[in-house]
Automatic annotation (TrEMBL):
The keyword Signal applies. Keywords: Coiled coil, Signal. GO terms for cellular component: cell envelope. This is HlyD family efflux transporter periplasmic adaptor subunit.
Length: 324
Protein backbone atom coordinates (compact mmCIF):
# COMPACT_ATOMS: atom_id res chain seq x y z
CA UNK A 1 0.00 0.00 0.00
CA UNK A 2 2.78 2.39 0.90
CA UNK A 3 4.59 1.61 -2.34
CA UNK A 4 1.45 2.36 -4.39
CA UNK A 5 1.08 5.68 -2.63
CA UNK A 6 4.71 6.50 -3.30
CA UNK A 7 4.32 5.63 -6.97
CA UNK A 8 1.27 7.87 -7.23
CA UNK A 9 3.30 10.66 -5.68
CA UNK A 10 6.08 9.89 -8.15
CA UNK A 11 3.75 10.26 -11.13
CA UNK A 12 2.32 13.49 -9.83
CA UNK A 13 5.76 14.89 -9.19
CA UNK A 14 7.01 13.82 -12.61
CA UNK A 15 4.10 15.72 -14.16
CA UNK A 16 5.03 18.83 -12.20
CA UNK A 17 8.65 18.47 -13.25
CA UNK A 18 7.64 18.21 -16.92
CA UNK A 19 5.72 21.47 -16.70
CA UNK A 20 8.76 23.47 -15.72
CA UNK A 21 11.78 23.68 -13.47
CA UNK A 22 11.34 27.18 -12.09
CA UNK A 23 11.12 25.87 -8.51
CA UNK A 24 13.64 23.04 -7.95
CA UNK A 25 12.11 20.17 -6.00
CA UNK A 26 13.09 17.12 -3.99
CA UNK A 27 11.09 14.07 -2.96
CA UNK A 28 11.05 12.28 0.35
CA UNK A 29 8.90 11.31 3.33
CA UNK A 30 7.82 12.62 6.68
CA UNK A 31 9.99 11.31 9.51
CA UNK A 32 10.63 11.75 13.20
CA UNK A 33 13.81 11.31 15.16
CA UNK A 34 14.10 7.72 16.31
CA UNK A 35 15.77 6.31 19.38
CA UNK A 36 16.15 2.65 20.27
CA UNK A 37 16.16 1.07 23.69
CA UNK A 38 18.77 -1.72 23.57
CA UNK A 39 18.66 -4.85 25.70
CA UNK A 40 21.01 -4.30 28.68
CA UNK A 41 21.27 -8.05 29.34
CA UNK A 42 20.23 -11.31 27.74
CA UNK A 43 17.25 -11.80 30.03
CA UNK A 44 13.69 -12.94 29.37
CA UNK A 45 10.98 -10.27 28.93
CA UNK A 46 8.55 -10.69 31.83
CA UNK A 47 6.33 -7.63 31.29
CA UNK A 48 5.46 -5.24 28.45
CA UNK A 49 3.74 -2.10 29.70
CA UNK A 50 3.06 -0.29 26.42
CA UNK A 51 1.76 -1.04 22.95
CA UNK A 52 2.81 0.18 19.54
CA UNK A 53 1.47 3.67 18.79
CA UNK A 54 1.13 4.59 22.47
CA UNK A 55 2.49 7.85 23.87
CA UNK A 56 4.93 7.38 26.75
CA UNK A 57 6.35 9.95 29.12
CA UNK A 58 9.96 10.30 30.19
CA UNK A 59 10.74 7.79 32.95
CA UNK A 60 7.71 5.60 32.20
CA UNK A 61 8.45 1.87 32.10
CA UNK A 62 8.26 0.31 28.64
CA UNK A 63 9.03 -3.28 29.65
CA UNK A 64 10.73 -5.33 32.34
CA UNK A 65 13.33 -8.06 32.04
CA UNK A 66 13.82 -10.92 34.50
CA UNK A 67 15.85 -9.78 37.51
CA UNK A 68 16.75 -13.04 39.32
CA UNK A 69 20.32 -13.43 38.09
CA UNK A 70 21.28 -9.75 38.33
CA UNK A 71 19.70 -9.42 41.77
CA UNK A 72 21.77 -12.39 43.00
CA UNK A 73 24.92 -10.74 41.65
CA UNK A 74 24.00 -7.55 43.44
CA UNK A 75 23.50 -9.37 46.74
CA UNK A 76 26.87 -11.12 46.34
CA UNK A 77 28.60 -7.81 45.55
CA UNK A 78 27.04 -6.15 48.59
CA UNK A 79 28.15 -9.06 50.81
CA UNK A 80 31.71 -8.74 49.50
CA UNK A 81 31.59 -5.00 50.17
CA UNK A 82 30.54 -5.65 53.76
CA UNK A 83 33.33 -8.20 54.11
CA UNK A 84 35.89 -5.70 52.84
CA UNK A 85 34.52 -3.08 55.22
CA UNK A 86 34.88 -5.40 58.22
CA UNK A 87 38.43 -6.29 57.18
CA UNK A 88 39.26 -2.59 57.02
CA UNK A 89 37.75 -1.99 60.45
CA UNK A 90 39.88 -4.82 61.83
CA UNK A 91 43.02 -3.23 60.37
CA UNK A 92 42.14 0.18 61.77
CA UNK A 93 41.38 -1.21 65.22
CA UNK A 94 44.73 -2.99 65.39
CA UNK A 95 45.51 -6.23 67.26
CA UNK A 96 43.44 -7.37 70.23
CA UNK A 97 44.90 -7.01 73.73
CA UNK A 98 44.61 -10.78 74.11
CA UNK A 99 46.87 -11.28 71.09
CA UNK A 100 49.47 -8.94 72.62
CA UNK A 101 49.37 -10.82 75.92
CA UNK A 102 49.77 -14.10 74.08
CA UNK A 103 52.83 -12.73 72.27
CA UNK A 104 54.34 -11.58 75.57
CA UNK A 105 53.81 -15.04 77.05
CA UNK A 106 55.47 -16.65 74.05
CA UNK A 107 58.43 -14.28 74.44
CA UNK A 108 58.78 -15.19 78.08
CA UNK A 109 58.72 -18.90 77.25
CA UNK A 110 61.34 -18.37 74.52
CA UNK A 111 63.60 -16.49 76.91
CA UNK A 112 63.30 -19.27 79.50
CA UNK A 113 64.18 -21.90 76.93
CA UNK A 114 67.09 -19.80 75.73
CA UNK A 115 68.41 -19.39 79.26
CA UNK A 116 68.17 -23.13 79.86
CA UNK A 117 69.93 -23.95 76.59
CA UNK A 118 72.67 -21.40 77.25
CA UNK A 119 73.24 -22.79 80.78
CA UNK A 120 73.48 -26.35 79.49
CA UNK A 121 76.01 -25.28 76.87
CA UNK A 122 78.03 -23.42 79.51
CA UNK A 123 78.21 -26.61 81.62
CA UNK A 124 79.36 -28.73 78.71
CA UNK A 125 82.10 -26.39 77.53
CA UNK A 126 84.70 -27.15 80.29
CA UNK A 127 83.85 -30.84 80.14
CA UNK A 128 84.49 -30.82 76.45
CA UNK A 129 87.85 -29.11 76.82
CA UNK A 130 88.87 -31.84 79.27
CA UNK A 131 87.49 -34.42 76.87
CA UNK A 132 85.09 -35.76 79.46
CA UNK A 133 82.21 -35.51 76.99
CA UNK A 134 82.10 -36.03 73.25
CA UNK A 135 82.75 -33.01 71.03
CA UNK A 136 79.49 -33.78 69.20
CA UNK A 137 77.53 -33.25 72.41
CA UNK A 138 79.15 -29.86 72.88
CA UNK A 139 78.35 -28.89 69.30
CA UNK A 140 74.71 -29.88 69.72
CA UNK A 141 74.44 -27.85 72.91
CA UNK A 142 75.94 -24.81 71.18
CA UNK A 143 73.46 -25.15 68.28
CA UNK A 144 70.53 -25.52 70.66
CA UNK A 145 71.58 -22.36 72.51
CA UNK A 146 71.82 -20.48 69.22
CA UNK A 147 68.39 -21.69 68.11
CA UNK A 148 66.89 -20.65 71.42
CA UNK A 149 68.40 -17.16 71.12
CA UNK A 150 66.95 -16.83 67.61
CA UNK A 151 63.52 -17.88 68.89
CA UNK A 152 63.73 -15.12 71.47
CA UNK A 153 64.49 -12.51 68.80
CA UNK A 154 61.58 -13.83 66.72
CA UNK A 155 59.18 -13.60 69.65
CA UNK A 156 60.39 -10.07 70.41
CA UNK A 157 59.76 -8.98 66.81
CA UNK A 158 56.28 -10.53 66.82
CA UNK A 159 55.42 -8.66 70.02
CA UNK A 160 56.71 -5.37 68.61
CA UNK A 161 54.63 -5.88 65.45
CA UNK A 162 51.48 -6.30 67.49
CA UNK A 163 52.27 -3.39 69.76
CA UNK A 164 52.90 -1.04 66.81
CA UNK A 165 49.55 -1.90 65.20
CA UNK A 166 48.62 -2.07 61.51
CA UNK A 167 50.86 -0.47 58.90
CA UNK A 168 49.51 2.59 57.10
CA UNK A 169 50.09 0.82 53.77
CA UNK A 170 47.91 -2.11 54.86
CA UNK A 171 45.14 0.26 55.92
CA UNK A 172 45.38 2.06 52.55
CA UNK A 173 45.06 -1.29 50.78
CA UNK A 174 42.01 -2.07 52.89
CA UNK A 175 40.44 1.28 52.01
CA UNK A 176 41.03 0.62 48.31
CA UNK A 177 39.63 -2.91 48.53
CA UNK A 178 36.48 -1.69 50.25
CA UNK A 179 36.03 1.09 47.67
CA UNK A 180 36.40 -1.40 44.83
CA UNK A 181 33.80 -3.73 46.33
CA UNK A 182 31.35 -0.90 46.92
CA UNK A 183 31.85 0.35 43.37
CA UNK A 184 31.13 -3.14 42.05
CA UNK A 185 27.96 -3.25 44.15
CA UNK A 186 26.85 0.11 42.73
CA UNK A 187 27.51 -1.14 39.20
CA UNK A 188 25.40 -4.21 39.86
CA UNK A 189 22.64 -1.98 41.25
CA UNK A 190 22.72 0.06 38.02
CA UNK A 191 22.51 -3.15 35.97
CA UNK A 192 19.51 -4.25 38.03
CA UNK A 193 17.77 -0.90 37.52
CA UNK A 194 18.33 -1.14 33.76
CA UNK A 195 16.21 -4.29 33.65
CA UNK A 196 13.28 -1.91 34.06
CA UNK A 197 13.46 -0.48 30.51
CA UNK A 198 12.33 3.15 30.80
CA UNK A 199 11.54 5.77 28.20
CA UNK A 200 14.36 8.35 28.28
CA UNK A 201 12.04 11.14 27.04
CA UNK A 202 8.49 11.76 25.88
CA UNK A 203 7.91 9.67 22.78
CA UNK A 204 5.63 7.55 20.60
CA UNK A 205 6.18 3.82 20.61
CA UNK A 206 6.80 2.95 16.98
CA UNK A 207 7.89 -0.68 17.25
CA UNK A 208 8.23 -3.48 19.79
CA UNK A 209 10.28 -6.13 17.99
CA UNK A 210 10.01 -8.78 20.75
CA UNK A 211 7.09 -10.46 22.47
CA UNK A 212 6.45 -11.34 26.09
CA UNK A 213 8.68 -14.26 27.04
CA UNK A 214 11.31 -13.59 24.38
CA UNK A 215 14.96 -13.34 25.33
CA UNK A 216 16.71 -10.76 23.18
CA UNK A 217 20.51 -10.74 22.86
CA UNK A 218 22.49 -7.96 24.50
CA UNK A 219 22.22 -4.75 22.47
CA UNK A 220 19.18 -5.84 20.45
CA UNK A 221 16.51 -3.09 20.15
CA UNK A 222 13.74 -3.85 22.62
CA UNK A 223 11.74 -0.81 21.52
CA UNK A 224 11.93 1.88 18.85
CA UNK A 225 10.60 5.29 19.91
CA UNK A 226 9.71 8.36 17.87
CA UNK A 227 10.69 11.59 19.61
CA UNK A 228 10.50 15.29 18.92
CA UNK A 229 7.73 17.86 19.01
CA UNK A 230 6.89 17.51 15.31
CA UNK A 231 7.86 15.44 12.28
CA UNK A 232 10.25 16.73 9.66
CA UNK A 233 10.64 16.11 5.95
CA UNK A 234 13.59 13.97 4.91
CA UNK A 235 14.14 14.60 1.21
CA UNK A 236 16.71 13.71 -1.41
CA UNK A 237 18.15 16.82 -3.03
CA UNK A 238 19.21 16.20 -6.65
CA UNK A 239 22.79 16.94 -7.49
CA UNK A 240 22.00 19.79 -9.98
CA UNK A 241 20.48 21.96 -7.25
CA UNK A 242 22.75 20.94 -4.37
CA UNK A 243 24.93 24.03 -4.68
CA UNK A 244 21.88 26.28 -4.16
CA UNK A 245 20.64 24.52 -0.99
CA UNK A 246 22.10 25.42 2.40
CA UNK A 247 21.14 25.13 6.06
CA UNK A 248 18.49 27.76 6.80
CA UNK A 249 17.14 27.68 3.23
CA UNK A 250 13.40 28.32 3.03
CA UNK A 251 11.28 25.58 1.52
CA UNK A 252 7.68 24.77 0.68
CA UNK A 253 6.66 21.21 1.51
CA UNK A 254 3.61 19.60 -0.02
CA UNK A 255 2.36 16.52 1.81
CA UNK A 256 0.48 13.73 0.10
CA UNK A 257 -3.19 13.95 1.11
CA UNK A 258 -3.13 17.65 2.04
CA UNK A 259 -4.17 20.45 -0.27
CA UNK A 260 -2.09 23.14 1.36
CA UNK A 261 1.69 23.34 1.44
CA UNK A 262 3.66 23.96 4.62
CA UNK A 263 6.49 26.37 5.17
CA UNK A 264 9.78 24.78 6.11
CA UNK A 265 13.43 25.42 6.66
CA UNK A 266 16.41 23.21 5.85
CA UNK A 267 17.92 22.15 9.16
CA UNK A 268 20.53 19.71 7.82
CA UNK A 269 21.99 18.60 4.52
CA UNK A 270 24.66 15.95 4.26
CA UNK A 271 27.88 16.58 2.44
CA UNK A 272 28.25 12.99 1.28
CA UNK A 273 26.00 11.99 -1.64
CA UNK A 274 24.18 8.70 -1.96
CA UNK A 275 22.14 7.04 -4.65
CA UNK A 276 18.61 8.32 -5.01
CA UNK A 277 15.95 5.85 -3.76
CA UNK A 278 13.65 4.43 -6.42
CA UNK A 279 10.62 6.53 -5.45
CA UNK A 280 12.54 9.79 -5.90
CA UNK A 281 13.75 9.08 -9.43
CA UNK A 282 12.29 11.59 -11.91
CA UNK A 283 13.50 12.32 -15.41
CA UNK A 284 17.19 13.07 -15.64
CA UNK A 285 17.62 12.67 -11.88
CA UNK A 286 17.50 8.90 -12.36
CA UNK A 287 21.16 8.96 -13.36
CA UNK A 288 22.33 11.35 -10.63
CA UNK A 289 23.34 11.19 -7.03
CA UNK A 290 21.37 13.00 -4.34
CA UNK A 291 22.02 14.50 -0.93
CA UNK A 292 19.89 13.74 2.11
CA UNK A 293 18.39 16.87 3.66
CA UNK A 294 16.04 17.41 6.60
CA UNK A 295 13.45 20.20 6.59
CA UNK A 296 11.76 21.36 9.78
CA UNK A 297 8.08 22.18 9.23
CA UNK A 298 5.94 25.04 10.49
CA UNK A 299 2.20 25.36 10.45
CA UNK A 300 -1.03 24.27 12.04
CA UNK A 301 -1.45 20.55 12.71
CA UNK A 302 2.18 19.68 12.04
CA UNK A 303 2.54 17.81 15.34
CA UNK A 304 -0.18 15.32 14.38
CA UNK A 305 1.20 14.39 10.96
CA UNK A 306 2.05 10.69 10.59
CA UNK A 307 5.48 9.48 9.58
CA UNK A 308 6.12 7.78 6.27
CA UNK A 309 3.83 10.03 4.20
CA UNK A 310 5.38 11.10 0.85
CA UNK A 311 6.31 14.76 0.50
CA UNK A 312 7.54 17.07 -2.24
CA UNK A 313 9.78 19.96 -1.28
CA UNK A 314 10.44 23.01 -3.44
CA UNK A 315 13.05 25.64 -2.77
CA UNK A 316 12.02 29.11 -3.94
CA UNK A 317 15.04 31.07 -5.10
CA UNK A 318 17.23 28.01 -5.63
CA UNK A 319 18.67 27.54 -9.11
CA UNK A 320 18.91 24.27 -11.03
CA UNK A 321 22.52 23.98 -12.02
CA UNK A 322 21.62 21.43 -14.68
CA UNK A 323 19.22 23.73 -16.58
CA UNK A 324 19.94 25.20 -20.03
Amino acid sequence: MRHRTLLACLLATATLAACGRDAPQALGTLERDRITLPAPAAERIVAIDVREGQVVRAGERVMQLETTRTRSRLEAARAQARQAGEALAELEAGPRSESIEQARAQLAAARAQAADAQAYYARLQPLGRRQLVAAADVDRARAAAGNASAAVRQAEAALLELEHGSRSEAIAQGVAAEAARRAEARAQAVDLAKLDVLAPRDAFVEQLPYELGDQAPVGAPLAVLLVGDAPFARVYVPEPIRASIRVGQKARVRIEGRDDALDGEVRMIRGEPNFTPYYALTGEDAARLSYVAEISLHGEGVQALPVGVPVTATFPGARDGGGE
